[in-house]
Amino acid sequence: MTQVVNIGTSTLELVQGDITEQQVDGIVNAANAELAGGGGVDGAIHRAGGPEIMAACQAIGGCPTGQAVVTTAGTLSARNVIHAVAPKYADGLHGEPGLLASAYQAALQIASDQGLKTVAFPSLGTGAYGYPLESAARIALGTVIDFLGSHPQVERVRFVLFDDEALAVYQQVLMEEAPTRRHGPR
Ligand code: AR6
Fold this sequence. Notes:
Layout: E1 3-7, E2 10-16, E3 26-31, H1 40-49, H2 51-60, E4 68-72, E5 80-85, H3 96-113, E6 118-121, H4 133-150, E7 156-161, H5 164-183
Parallel strand pairs: 2-7, 3-5, 3-6, 6-7
Antiparallel strand pairs: 1-2, 4-5
Helix pairs in contact: 3-4, 4-5
This protein binds ligand AR6.
Ligand AR6 binds near residues 39 and 162.
């Protein structure tokens, strides 16, 4: 099941699936600061896109937490992979919310700068990095909604949630967040 909301002239979608299979201009990777590859989304993207992506990551060398960098998408159908680095969650009191929001913002800014009209995001930070799902969903969706409101050149953002639980949490948070965000305070 796909959930869709309009943000200005852009579209925000929630789907369940594998991010490597999305037909979009840009695929966002849940990377680490070393751009060294790993498990989860990162492993899946490097496996599916081939060694060209790792070669490009090595040439860049790294990416600070809360930032993002862009590479080729190798053999994936997307034009680019945007590698975004979420914080490792400790207790929420070590700047994690700001760093997670900034990882989304940096990835979205790159998409906009590169002219990528359609972008697929995973749920950054909520796997190996341990960010609690509901708090992460609130930050993820809030940040994307704010960005799309002022950047209509990014036409479609799709969150690709891997499992039932992540999809359900994102759906619930989107229902709570989107009406207020779209229409503003009354
Ligand atoms: N498509 C979409 N979502 C996926 C996929 C997939 N193919 N595979 C896993 N997920 P994670 P993080 C979900 O761990 O927490 C790596 O080792 C997964 O269920 O990929 O930011 C990197 O190298 C979870 O909800 O990213 C870093 O070292 C979400 O994607 C570190 O993990 C994110 O899980 C980054 O950790």
